[in-house]
Amino acid sequence: MRFRIYRYDPDQDREPYMQDFELAEIPSGMMLRDALLALKAQDETLSFRHSCGEGVCGSDGMNINGRNGLACITPLAELKEPVEVRPFPGVPVIRDLIVDMQGFYKQYHSVKPYLIRHDPEPEVETLQMPDERDRLDGLYECILCGCCTTSCPSFWWNPDKFLGPAALLQAWRFLADSRDQAENDRLDALDGPYRLFRCHTVMNCVDVCPKGLNPTRAIGHIRDLMLKKSI
Amino acid sequence: MSRSISGLRAWIFQRITAIYLAVFVPVALGYLLFYPVTSYQPWVELLSSPWVNTSLLLFVFAILLHGWIGIRDVVIDYVQPFSARIGLLVLVGLGLVACGAWAARILFNVKGVV
Hints:
Chain A: Its EC number is 1.3.5.1. The complex is a heterodimer. By secondary structure, chain A is an alpha+beta fold. Chain A is 30% helix and 13% strand. Chain A has two domains: 2-99, Roll (Ubiquitin-like (UB roll)); 101-230, Alpha-helical ferredoxin (Fumarate Reductase Iron-sulfur Protein, Chain B, domain 2), CATH 1.10.1060. Chain A has eight helices and seven strands. The A-B interface holds A 153-154, 157-158, 191-198, 200, 223, 226-227, 230 and B 3-4, 6-8, 10-12, 73, 76-78, 80.
């Protein structure tokens, strides 16, 4: 199987280039991450992040044949040859397939992704009804791999100001939580032309999310709630 | 422009004006299809009806506002240098205001004729 892989080592290369690789044996069920590890055995300078190998840690997000995804859960059988592997678009490349996710994390931190309570701490857990807990389904599963945010054109144009789908999904995750008590502060922080409203419902985020989550719907919920609170 | 006007409010106005445009345009075109206006005098009579006049004025207002928010969105997305952005927004804004003034002049003048 043929591969074309983005290579860039800022210490040695003047500019990025695509390197061709070939793997002779492809066992059935082989995932792209396994192939990359085999290619790294051929050329040990090839660099990429990976860890759990089963789509849970979110480390090996990359652009595979033009689509963001996790290498460890992308079967080679589904990919057209030559498999073109590039780093996430729209974020700085550190080396080869490794990108700088600082901006992504900064936006994530800015939505205060934790429960904020004004009441005194309870003696036991803050209880929740089953239907209140159900509202968090489809939100809490995010693994912060960055596939959605780095496939979003609005994030490409304004990465420092637009929060991006992953951070906004988490913003809604805490707005939707019955135990959170900072609804107004959270909504105020999201208003303005950039942070939330750069979303033009392109829905690349929904298309690529390896966990099947829907940030666009979450963003819609935030807008609805903002509207309800403003009239 | 306060931050709240440029965020939620812009988004809401864009949707409200979109609904008005989506209703007004087919109705207006449908009317003109069934009752074609062929000369100047029937135009003047049609436009002098307060219903037509007001709804047309609203249409002009809606399309200008809708256009402003849409173009502003495109500029915010794609034009990054501050001076170019401001310059472009001022140009677009002036152009839209001029269009609005022109449309208002036509509509009010029609009223004056009858």
